[in-house]
Design goal:
Layout: E1 8-11, H1 17-28, E2 32-37, H2 41-53, E3 58-62, H3 68-82, E4 87-90, H4 105-129, E5 136-139, H5 143-146, H6 153-158
């Protein structure tokens, strides 16, 4: 399946789990993939190498999506490696359980900086790079947003599905 040949995608939070699965599927469909990670460099590099070993094109790029400078660098590295951007998949997220009375300023900012601000910053950079044909932005949500789980208030608020 080469329905995405000549397309370039960034997948945030692509060092494990769903992010690796999404990046692998995009590569299998022919896209060149930039796999973003924040802390698990080895996981992202292993996943990128697995794509390369199957004949695809992938790079692993470390960047904290909650930091403007990191996001700018992520997109510049993708520009340098692949010369364009067609798809952004916002998968990066923090999910830490805790009772409501245990929410701290630090835990609040951790969740919102990555889960909300990170999505905003990456979408802003992606829009700057989409050409005349436009592009695709996929912001992942979670069942936790519509079916709350005890101790997941901060995560659930951000991951509620939106209908835009």
């Amino acid at each position: 399946m080469d329905s995405l040949s000549d397309k370039v995608a960034i997948v945030t939070g692509a060092s494990k789990g769903i992010g690796v699965g999404i990046a692998t599927a995009l590569a299998a469909a022919g896209a060149r993939v930039a796999m973003n990670y924040s802390s698990d460099r080895d996981g992202a590099e292993r996943a990128a190498q697995a794509i390369i070993d199957k004949g695809g094109k992938a790079i692993a790029v470390g960047a904290d999506v909650s930091k403007v400078a990191d996001v700018a660098r992520l997109f510049k590295e993708v520009d340098s490696a692949f010369g364009r951007l067609d798809v952004l998949v916002n998968n990066a997220g923090v999910f830490r359980f805790g009772a409501f009375d245990k929410i701290t300023e630090e835990s609040f900012h951790l969740h919102y900086n990555i889960n909300v601000l990170g999505a905003i910053l990456t979408v802003q950079e992606a829009i700057k790079r989409f050409g005349a044909d436009g592009g695709s932005i996929i912001n992942l949500s979670s069942i936790v947003g519509s079916h709350p789980v005890a101790g997941a208030l901060l995560y659930g608020q951000r991951k509620a599905p939106s209908k835009h």
